[in-house]
Amino acid sequence: MEPPVDSAAALIDREAELGALAAALAASAPAPRLVVVEGPAGIGKTALIERALERAGAVRVLRAGGERVEQRLALGLLDLLLRQAQEPGIAADAGLAAAGARLLGLLERIDVLVLDDAQWADAASLAALVYALRRLAGGGRVLVGTRSDEPASLQSLLRLAAPPFGRRLRLRGLDAGGIAALARASRVPLPAAATRRLHAHVGGNPGHAAALLAETPPEVWRDADRRLAAPHALALELRALVDASGDELRRLVEAVAVLGSGCLLADAARLAGLADGLAALELATHDQLLALARRDGAAVVEFPQPLAAAAVYEWLGPARLAALHTSAAELVDDAAEALRHLACAAVGPDDELARRLDAFACQDDELRARPDAAAALIAASRLSVTRGEREQRLLRAVDWMLLGGDAARARGFAGEVAACAKSARRDSVIGQLAISDGRIGDAGVWLAEAWRQVDAASDPSLAATIAHRTAFYALVHLRDAEVALWARRALALAPDDVLAVEWKATLALSLWRQGRRREADELLTRALQDDSERDAQLLGMRAWLRFAGGELTASREQLADAAATELRLGALEIGVVHLNVLARAHFAAGDWDEAAAVAARAVARGSELEDVSARVFAWWAAALVPSARGDWAAADELARRAAQEPADAPDRLVAIGMAQALPAAALGDAERVLRALEPVRALVPRNAIDEPGFWPWQPPYAAALVTTGRLDDAEAFLAPQERLAAAREQQALMATLATVRGRLEAARGRRDDALAALERAHELARPLGRPYALALARVELGSLQRRRGQRRAAAALLGEAAEALARLGARPALERARRELTACGGRPARGGFEQPARLTPQERAVARIVAAGRSNRETAAELQVSVKTVEVHLTRIYAKLGIASRTQLAVRMGAGAAR
Q1: How far is it between the farthest Cα atoms of the chain?
Q2: pLDDT (0 to 100) of residue 186
Q3: Which of 318-332, 606-620, 861-875 holds the top average pLDDT?
Q4: Planar angle of CA 771, 777, 782, nearest 5 degrees
Q5: Are 224 and 193 in contact (CB under 8 A)?
Q6: Which of 146-160, 221-235, 474-488, 849-863 has the lowest mean pLDDT?
Q7: Coil, helix or strand for 32?
Q8: How far is CA 16 from CA 24, 229, 291, 851, in A?
Q9: What percent of the chain clears pLDDT 90, i.e. is strictly above it?
Q10: How, if at all, do strands 298-302 and 263-264 pair?
Q11: What is the pLDDT of residues 673-712, one digit of tens each?
């Protein structure tokens, strides 16, 4: 039988499959008579079947399961079924017709027959089941659970599971989000990095994940270098299978576990001491312990079940492991692999090996960003003879992890770092760990102490790193003059450092926020090296700043390219930042479906970040579309999640405030807008906060002051913002501020001044290619014109605004435009708003398949597209239809609402 799986845990993220299975079992439903649920051990087949039976309300249920030791017992499973139904058993030599007739009679008297672990059922019982099903006119359904390997004895039954008679439901692993939900349900606090490790380790299998969550000590999850074990039950099952298969097979699987899945068959055979590796491999393949594949024309051997490698490695004793790793080091050609094997074989300090590992890690400056360089230094640290060497290598390794963006792994060594002797590198690392943890206040003290201790003459690279970390600390505190000072200091100390690209990007950002825009753009342009990978961060920063300066078309394309490159290279933090900016650019350009899709991707990738400095900005970008479309539940949830982020860094206060202010502004709740943005108004220094275009918080704040009647406060705030926007030639901000000016003048009773301001806002907004901003300006101008008696001009403007808002699906603003049109005496078309809900042909195809209960992977396979494409389509479908789940989609599709 499969290892036990908690029912609730196994059903996380299984609502679509559960609904489909329950519907197939419902008494009122037509065929299918046979449903086969497939998947690997631990995937949750049994839990899904039992919950579906509960939901379907099946009363007369008969259950039995296959058993490996009875697989050769003819009609053993049928005999068990008959006895459980309190009927006489059946002889093993009964013919097919007699056996099938007995089973047919049984099926006619029950609601559901559940046959679990069918891969271990005897062939004669399965043949009898096929016989009975082919002749079944009424009576019960048959529900079969089986592993995915599909033995030959199941083929006839699986052929029957084709529509319309039957159905096959293939269960696959959970995604990382599902594993995170499983950890929460298991009450195990997993960091994001540990969640990703667990997901990769178990392949998304909920049963194996639940077992490891229960069996693994908490400290293992915090140590990225600790091997994860296999679930205890699975390890025992595999050990019994291997022990029963003979010494040659055992030696082969142990060799593959040490060399790594996907190693050359010839190397595995040599390490196992086998003259003929194929003979042992044939037996291992029969038992599905190993599989043979081809790579570059060579035969390679791998574990079909990834956890098998962990299970095998775990049962090897220290002496056996040391011997195998030592021999493996002589077999492999790759120097890094050979050193890794030698390090695994070492049982105590080894000064020579530690020096070799250190030399490998330092052979090329480019390696500092690679995980294997840091891993080599960690291994060297463990093998070092003296405390000084041990600590120095550990600190360099953790420093490189942080510089390479792997804060999650670095955090696992925080305790060891703190225990090291005081030094510039130690304090710099502790300071950077504090930043990545969101403890910004602590970081400044550590970085200042690191700079006091560092000898820039003897170690300019370390001094430059500390200088840039200090620049980043100043950046999040909005002290841009200090940012520029420290970034220039870093570049002067180590101008050719591999990380100088990041330092130049930081310097350019600080210059831009000081109003030195041309200087920032020239710096970024000069730094480019005509290498798409090296230049990705520079290009992304340049596109970001150009978008903040008002450019839309080119900046969107450049941001998309830069984000894609950064994410592909593993630069997750900066990639998420640029996805957030890209979502804002799509929103400004009126491409709201794409904005929602990109923002959803930023949220998903941001959830993987242990460092909150990039993640916190995702909520603001994601709140734009639901706020403007009036999806209050989604927008408020994003505001709530933003409010839960650490707010000790001033720049995070801006992002949190924007995420909270957006839905309030769209809803017209001015007091709530002020509460969200007052912390931003109170920040000092003001340069970075008020720099036009970077953080567009000024218009909603000023508008909220007007709405609440604080007219003098609004004037005092608005006037300097208008002057600064004009000085920077920030036309988009000038237009929105002019709209607020019009509202302020109207509130003062100065209708001529109000009209002039709103006409100017309209003229400024028209050429910008920002349809939402233009529509809002037209609503304001048209509303004032109506009140002045200019009904024809007002109706024309309001009609244009309503059409644009309907295309965008901007329900709150559209409702106001329609009210104003009605007051003008016009009759706005009611059908305009429904246009956004019309799905494209591809979206309709995705919606139909998903609503039928298929997973994203199954949908992608049927449509011959990628899973990511399906996810993007679903995001757009949900936004267009105003829904949030597959269950709601099934209801809407069933009602014919998705057109």
Answers
A1: 102
A2: 87
A3: 318-332
A4: 120
A5: yes
A6: 849-863
A7: coil
A8: 13, 31, 32, 8
A9: 54
A10: antiparallel
A11: 999 999 999 998 888 899 999 999 999 999 999 999 999 9
User: Contact 158/35 with Cβ under 8 angstroms?
Assistant: no
Please give the backbone phi and psi of residue 282, each rounded to the nearest 5 degrees, phi first.
-60, -40
Q: Which of the residue ranges 167-171, 518-522, 593-597, 652-656 would you say has the lowest mean pLDDT?
A: 167-171
Confidence grade of residue 7 (pLDDT, cut at 50, 70, 90) = very low
**Backbone Cα Rg of the chain:** 33
Is the full-model pTM beyond 0.85? no
Cβ neighbour number for residue 138 with a 10 Å cutoff: 7
Q: String of b and e for 735-769 (b: at least 16 CB within 10 Å)?
A: bbbbbbbbbbbbeeeeeeebbebbbbbbebbeebe
Cβ pair 621, 583 in contact under 8 A: yes
Answer yes or no: are the C-beta atoms of 880 and 836 closer than 8 Å. yes
pLDDT at residue 690, rounded to an integer:
93
Q: Considering only CA atoms, which of 12, 408, 361 is closest in space to residue 210?
A: 12
What pLDDT is attached to residue 649?
A: 86
pLDDT per residue as tens digits for the range 51-80: 888 877 767 888 898 888 888 899 999 999
Please report the DSSP string for 138-172 in residue order.
SS-EEEEEE-TT--GGGHHHHHHTSTTTEEEEE--
Into which CATH architecture does domain 837-894 fall?
Orthogonal Bundle (1.10)
Q: Which amino acid is at 648?
A: D
Among 878, 877, 884, which Cα is nearest to 841's? Answer: 877
State which CATH number among 1.10.1740.10, 3.40.50.300, 3.40.50.720, 3.40.190.10 fits the domain covering 7-172. 3.40.50.300
Give 701-767 as a DSSP string: HHHHHHHTT-HHHHHHHHHHHHHHHHHTT-HHHHHHHHHHHHHHHHHTT-HHHHHHHHHHHHHHHGG
Residues 6+ positions from 13 with CB-CB distance below 8 Å = 174, 175, 177, 178, 181
Instruction: Give the CATH H-level superfamily of domain 422-526.
Output: Tetratricopeptide repeat domain (1.25.40.10)
Q: Please name every residue paired with 37 in a beta bridge, in sequence order, or none if there are none.
A: 145, 169
pLDDT computed for residue 219 by the predictor: 84
Rounded Cα distance, 96 and 232, in Å? 40
How far is it, in rounded angstroms, from Cα 110 to Cα 58? 9
Task: Report the percentage of the chain scoring pLDDT > 70.
Answer: 91
Please provide the average confidence, as pLDDT, over all residues in the chain.
Answer: 87
424 within 8 A of 464, measured Cβ to Cβ: no
- For residues 890, 892, 896 and 899, what is the CA-based torsion angle, rounded to 10 degrees? -110
pLDDT of residue 744 exceeding 60: yes
Distance of alpha carbon 509 from the chain centroid: 27
Q: Which residues contact 479 (CB under 8 A, 6 or more apart)?
A: 685
* Cα–Cα distance measured from residue 129 to residue 783, given in angstroms and rounded to the nearest whole number: 74
